[in-house]
Fold this protein.
Amino acid sequence: MTKGADNDGQLKALLCFNVYALNRSFGRFYQSAFSETGLTYPKFVILMALKEEGPMSVSTLSLRAGVEPNTLSPIVKKMAGFDLISRQRANDDERRVELEITAKGEAVLQRAQEVVYEGFASLNLEGNSLADAIAFLETTREVVDDANPPKLNLDGIR
């Protein structure tokens, strides 16, 4: 919460509320952009991570894409069923599943990126202000990930 906020705008003065609301707005943006293709924002992020970094395990992809492993597993299973990614057991450890983007996945990602970039161009979110916002959000995320906040104690409240 931002110190010094007045009572009329306390919710809007919360960084966390604005990030949450922006996340929902982006969700609607991507849902509209991908409409009835079956592609979702998490699938888009998965394809991007696999394209950028190559084959990786489910646990590594979970960290890279910011998706919990138990949420990620059914998504990658569906994506493999549509031949967007391949799933193979690692040679050195059969318990580990290695994921890799397929040629079809790369083609879908290419077209999805074109649509997203076209949509972003219409938003006029470019240049230094966009780079500054991304840097601020990345730094903030890292700080929050490492934080140890005080714990709410409800003892004595009736």
Q: What stands out?
A: The longest helix spans residues 15-34.
